[in-house]
Design brief:
Elements: H1 12-23, H2 28-31, H3 48-51, E1 69-72, E2 75-78, E3 91-93, E4 98-99, H4 102-111, E5 117-119, E6 130-134, E7 141-147, E8 155-156, H5 164-173, E9 198-203, E10 215-220, E11 230-232, E12 244-246, E13 252-254, E14 281-282, E15 288-289, H6 309-312, H7 317-329, H8 333-342, E16 366-367, E17 376-381, E18 386-394, E19 397-400, E20 413-417, E21 430-432, E22 434-439, E23 453-457, E24 488-493, E25 507-513, H9 517-521, E26 529-533, E27 549-553, E28 559-567, E29 578-582, H10 587-594, H11 596-599
Antiparallel strand pairs: 1-2, 3-4, 3-5, 6-7, 7-8, 7-11, 9-10, 12-13, 14-15, 16-25, 17-18, 17-20, 18-19, 19-23, 20-21, 22-23, 24-25, 24-27, 25-26, 26-29, 27-28, 28-29
Length: 604
């Protein structure tokens, strides 16, 4: 519960401090370089503390799940085929079975690994897609030859732009679960084998399970084996050397190949815990993505900075149409994967009528305008004054602090939505009674651990869902990595102002997420907490703001309720930022009570 006090104009030194805090947070997470059977002196960009979580491409705290998966407790799990979008675009599996669409096949493969994608059409028994390794002394290495489903001749894979992304897919396709060991070995080809003037150019994301899912296009080639791609697939695990990184899947790759945007491991574990990135784009969540993923109309960074309007501008409809036609002509299954994502259920959340981020500074506090905080609600007990704030998250549900409410008083609480001024009447204000109060089962009133509660409102229309005409839900974050130290967020409420005077109009202020709050508050600070404020204490929350929102906006202006106002060292004390319940830590707890589809912006 805390007020929005005066924010001083930021000095250059303050901005530099913020930048350093954001890029190089101190503490155990970033002080040590990654050590996985490699010497301490080896320079890497890896973050040791992050690596301990063993994140992979199936970790939705770091990446987005595919359309045929759902995010549950931090992991991408298989959907059932019927949960896929119902678009009709038949695809053929390697078993000869036809599926209604690519998503349904992948959902089935997710649980039955023998079903793999073969072609984008109904199955014809005589047509097969074949991949083989030839011109080596082992079945696990050689030059790659491919027979497409509609042709009889075998074509080599071109060597241009060939990377571990494609090599891993080839090895996975052939049943080598760890992917590729090498992708640039040299194997000689007999002159008699060089019968075609073309080779296949392959482009993969590195997570496909069949080479047929990659984009394959015919390209003219010179008759030389140096122009052909090769691969070596590891048949068993081995000990990593001192200059190698052990992937989560136990594969060994050179340390120099980590944090480069290429999925060298095959499970992406070498790209998910990076302080910096070489020759690739660094997401704020410490993930490295290829530069070609930037501005491709698909969000790859959790906070969307790879697709932000400031970075990408506006693409014309002509450009979109041209790209779509190119994707279709190449039978690009990556484009099909992206298209399926657009058919998934979409939530509307976190959008305001005003762009608050463009305000440069706060002078004497900020009075909220109409539509600026459409998720902010007030909680009143009986006929008394506002004692807490809350956050509308959709349906009939309000998120607030556990210390704001008591289950025994459920009949006394009233939710006021659409309210700005607590005295002046406004016809846009709605009031709701409560059905129930759900307080986190492990809430500790003595130290505010797990200070989170859900309030279910009674609908004003019997038998129907709640209708909040002038409210918009805030998005609920699912990952603790969506926003990091140094990010500017906004806190709002009707709490006490400077001089501990009462506020009758909703106020808000800009504050920054702080690093290392456990150093400030010692044993009073828990990992499910976040702290935020200003270095001089000039903006803070105060008594009366409890339960209200700390909202952070991503690169596409989508607002997430990152924190719930919880507690602090008085109000506006320099060096002691306010403490908030970190909502991302409670995503699964919230979804168990309100339903996953209500709050899952992605990974439904």
């Amino acid at each position: 519960m805390k007020v929005l006090l005066v924010l001083l104009v930021f000095s250059c030194s303050f901005l530099r401090i913020c930048e350093l805090k954001a890029l190089q947070p101190s503490g155990s997470e970033d002080e040590e370089l990654a050590e996985q059977d490699q010497p301490v002196q080896q320079e890497t960009f890896l973050i040791k503390e992050c690596l301990n979580h063993k994140y992979t491409h199936n970790s939705c705290k770091k990446v987005f799940c595919d359309a045929w998966e759902k995010c549950v407790e931090g992991n991408c799990l298989c959907k059932l085929p019927y949960q896929c979008p119902k678009n009709i675009s038949f695809v053929c599996a390697t078993t000869g079975r036809t599926f209604h669409n690519y998503c349904q096949l992948k959902a089935y493969e997710c649980q039955h690994t023998h079903e793999k994608f073969q072609s984008k059409k109904s199955c014809i028994i005589s047509e097969t897609f074949e991949v083989s390794l030839d011109y080596a002394n082992s079945s696990s290495e050689g030059l790659i030859q491919v027979k497409l489903v509609d042709q009889n001749e075998k074509l080599f894979i071109c060597n241009d732009e060939w990377s571990m992304n494609e090599a891993n897919v080839v090895c996975t396709h052939l049943g080598f679960n760890m992917g590729a060991e090498h992708h640039n070995e040299t194997f000689e080809v007999p002159e008699s084998a060089l019968t075609s003037s073309q080779c296949l150019h392959a482009t993969c994301r590195g997570l496909e399970t069949s080479l047929a899912e990659c984009t394959l296009t015919k390209t003219p080639t010179v008759n030389s084996s140096k122009k052909f791609a090769s691969v070596v697939c590891p048949e068993k695990e081995r000990e990593c050397t001192q200059n190698e990184f052990r992937c989560v899947n136990q594969k060994c790759i050179p340390l120099t190949e980590t944090c480069n945007g290429i999925n060298d491991c095959g499970d992406l574990s070498d790209e998910l815990c990076c302080k910096e990135c070489s020759n690739s784009f660094h997401c704020n969540s410490d993930v490295c993505i290829p530069n070609k993923y930037l501005c491709n109309k698909e969000i790859d960074c959790l906070a969307g900075e790879d697709e932000s309007p400031a970075r990408c501008g506006a693409r014309t409809s002509t450009e979109d149409k041209s790209k779509e036609q190119k994707d279709i002509s190449n039978t690009n299954m990556d484009a099909e994967r992206r298209r399926i994502k657009t058919l998934l259920p979409q939530l509307t959340c976190g959008i305001t009528n005003h762009t608050l981020t463009r305000r440069k500074r706060i002078i004497g506090g900020n009075t909220a305008g109409k539509g600026e905080f459409p998720w902010q609600v007030a909680i009143r007990e009986g006929s008394g004054s506002i004692n807490c704030g809350g956050i509308y998250i959709g349906g009939c549900w309000i998120l607030t602090a556990a210390h704001c409410v008591r289950m025994s008083r459920v009949n006394q609480y009233r939710i006021w939505s659409g309210i700005l001024h607590v005295i002046h009447y406004n016809r846009e204000i709605d009031t709701f009674q409560l059905n129930r109060v759900i307080i986190h089962e492990n809430y500790n009133a003595s130290n505010y651990q797990n200070d989170v509660a859900l309030l279910e409102m009674k609908s004003n229309r019997k038998g129907k869902q709640c209708s909040l005409a002038y409210s918009i839900p805030a998005c609920v974050p699912w990952s603790e990595y969506q926003f990091r130290s140094g990010h500017q967020c906004k806190v709002s409420g009707w709490g006490l102002a400077e001089g501990y005077t009462k506020q009758i109009v909703l106020h808000w202020g800009n504050i920054h997420l702080f690093p290392n709050c456990s150093d400030i508050y010692k044993e009073r600070f828990f990992k499910e907490m976040e702290c935020a404020g200003t270095f001089d204490g000039s903006v803070d929350a105060c008594k009366g703001d409890s339960g209200g929102p700390l909202v952070c906006t991503d690169s596409n202006d989508q607002a997430y309720v990152w924190g719930i106002v919880s507690w602090g060292e008085n109000c506006g004390v320099p060096g002691y930022p306010g403490v908030y319940t970190k909502v991302a830590s409670y995503f699964d707890w919230i979804s168990r009570h309100v339903g996953r589809s209500l709050i899952s912006l992605y990974n439904v």
